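In keeping with the milestone schedule agreed at the kick-off meeting, the structural modelling team has produced records for the first pair of proteins. Each record is given below as a sequence line and a structure-token line. The laboratory manager (R.T.) confirmed that both were archived under the project's standard naming scheme.
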Amino acid sequence: MAVTYIRRWLEDRLSESLDTSPAVMLQGARYIGKTTLARRLAVSVLDLSNQQHAARLELDPLGTLRRAERPVLVDEWQLRPQTLWDIKTLVDAEGASGFIIAGSAGYSPLEGFSQFPLTGRCDVLRLRPMAHGERRELAVTPLADLLFGHTDEWGSPERLDHTDYTSVAVRSGYPGHAGLDAEEEHRALGRIAGNIIETDIVRHQTRRDSAATRLGLSRFIAAYAARSGRIVDLQSIAKSAGITYKTAAKYRDMYDNSYLLAELPIWRPTPDSQGFRHPKRVLSDPGMMAPLMGISRDELTDSPQLLGGLIETFVHAQLSTQQAVSVEPYEVECYDLRRSGKFRRPPAAYPLGELDFVVRSTVRSAIALVEVKARNRVKRQDADRIIALRDAIDSDPAARHEFISGVVLCCGNIDPMPISNRVWAAPVSALWSTQ
């Protein structure tokens, strides 16, 4: 069955980067559509998983790259990391440009690389799982643009009930599955989960211990998936998986380097505030939760605790993908302020405890806050911690960032409405609302 191309939000940024940078590295998980997107702009392709292409590059790397019609896609670069140094040579010596570099691994010491040769010569773009609005080809208003004040119109959020939201949240962001029904997609994701584990065994283990590694990897990623959307220490995941902390750290790095996982750092309101030292851990694609845990989607959505993690994972995935089209550049972090014996209380009364997401602007000292509720309505007290943090920041001259606004998202059929000054309640569908 032919797959119809769904235009990715990152396409315009990739085109702009090609105009302004000699090379662009396109990063992302396997099956996420990097090659498909890059081929939209590339005139020629050098695929290092193709034996003929790899042999040509090995025999005459500079000549092969020099003769390639540009923009040229250098695909699966991690199969021959030296290619990045060859591109550097052409960029530095000849002023060459028009290189799109794609692969399913980050440039990391884990893979045996000590440095990135294209520093200062390469834009790095991250292709993430498709957002729900992207899949449906909607002209969405990114939530960050609403929260940071680039528009004051919430648009027309889609009217969904709680059951609708769970059905949306369990769907995958892999573009190749866009035309599948829910059951077909679940089976396909199960195969991907198995392929990811087998690939990591080949890359990092010997044949002798592959059986033990397969079991350990499966248990680790199942335990991680069960805690997606939570702030949790790695030791707890290791204990649940029945492996050592050292092994869990190794597996975490492996999966992080393949972009299957994301770890959100703790945002601190002041330099002397003490945040919880463990990150919020999420899967990059919420659709992978059930397959990686080895359970059905009904089992996932019928568990209140797992459902809460699923909805948070889904919201994080939408926020992450919207980075490609937001007017306000931002990073997604979280908030969890703890009191400890060494904790020196900041001047203002910053609330202790957790907030789901801190959307931190990368171009100004400003934040917006997002709290997520898996139920179908918002209670006034759901916003208490946002309001307390707003008031603390407003009254503290030592605050690191300005509070712009906050929102409590719920899985119900509600209209966006103000709860307090600069604090809103809205449905999760506000993440793909249109003007």
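The second protein of the pair:
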Amino acid sequence: MTQRMERLEKLARQVLGEAIQDLKDPRVGFATVTRVRISPDLRHARVLVSVLGTDEEQTETMKGLASAKAYLRGELGRQVRMKYLPELAFELDHRSEDAQHLEELLRKIHTEEE
């Protein structure tokens, strides 16, 4: 990946992260943009989002983000100059949950050894 694409993805992550915090939709809970992957042709962007809360709260947050997609895409276009404005696809990022689960397993193994 080129440095330009890396900078663009980082900037998109910052802009979308701030825009999501400003959303007034009550369905959107505590959501953090963890990563943005923009296709080489700049037409599509996968936005990975970490959401704190229950499965139901995560589902509701993702619904809220989906309904705010046009607004968020517009914010991205206003703040980042790109040849094309990418279509946004929001996905739940489970990496933090996986890390927490792994940490619990390691802790359990450690206590069983003692």
